[in-house]
Specification:
It contains eleven helices and five strands, in the order βαβαβαβαβααααααα. With 226 residues, it is an alpha/beta fold. The protein has two domains: 121 residues, Rossmann fold, CATH 3.40.50; 81 residues, Winged helix-like DNA-binding domain superfamily/Winged helix DNA-binding domain (Arc Repressor Mutant, subunit A, Orthogonal Bundle), CATH 1.10.10.10. It has a five-stranded parallel β-sheet with strand order 2-1-3-4-5. α1 links the parallel β1 and β2.
Length: 226
């Protein structure tokens, strides 16, 4: 077996061994040189049995037969890879998948181009969901008070640089915008934006843009003059 290219996005596919998986395997093997198939499994349980041997940047998981988010959360707890859900259902019915930690949802009826683009965007740290789903999720996150209020939060916020506060403000006031739009509004590159976000997530103990939006609205970082 040929060695995987270190420059390519390594994608691990979790789906039943049916025609759909066969087609996705062929697409990942030949559809885009920036994306490679790192491996496959029929179930999440099978992945957990050999998680130490799995090297992946993005997990694509068929969620049609899942009955809750516990299995997805367990997977994310054991890896630093991003998760992209694959489903035949409407996104409206899959908010639980996103709340469990998935960075996006690809419909099985979507075209190959959309599938590959979703993988690239999720790998870059962006969300692959429509605006309506994003609004539902961030609204629910804010209402549920996902971020606790305590003195340590003031200490975390105090560690933010001026540029990081500007980044949070831009993200919170234009929450559903792609990363390149946010970067352009800040007159920085997407690479620099990702670096800022990595630092912000680390300082505030957050995981993704949904967490950041909820945190910013809860602690007033979406309104402060920077």
């Amino acid at each position: 077996m040929e060695a995987l290219s270190p420059a390519a996005i390594q994608v691990f596919l979790v789906a039943p061994p049916m025609l759909l998986r066969w087609g996705l395997e062929r697409l990942l093997e030949t559809g885009d040189p920036s994306v490679e198939l790192a491996g496959t499994a029929a179930t999440l349980e099978e992945v957990h049995l050999r998680i130490d041997q799995v090297q992946a940047d993005v997990f694509v998981v068929d969620v049609d037969d899942l009955r809750g988010g516990d299995a997805l959360r367990a997977l994310l707890a054991s890896t630093s890879a991003r998760l992209l859900a694959l489903a035949s259902q409407e996104v409206l019915q899959l908010d639980w998948v996103l709340m469990a930690g998935a960075r996006g949802v690809v419909r099985k009826s979507d075209g190959p181009g959309s599938f590959l683009k979703a993988i690239r965007k999720v790998h870059q740290g962006e969300l692959w969901i429509d605006r309506a789903a994003f609004s539902r999720l961030v609204g629910g996150a804010a209402r549920s008070n996902l971020m606790s209020t305590s003195d340590p939060e003031s200490e975390r916020i105090a560690r933010l640089t001026k540029r990081e506060r500007q980044t949070i403000l831009a993200m919170a006031t234009n929450a559903a915008a792609p990363g390149k739009v946010i970067a352009s509004s800040l007159s920085i590159s997407e690479h620099t934006l990702r670096n800022h976000l990595t630092s912000i997530y680390d300082k505030l103990n957050l995981q993704n843009r949904l967490d950041l939006y909820a945190y910013a609205t809860k602690h007033g970082l979406d309104r402060q003059s920077q």
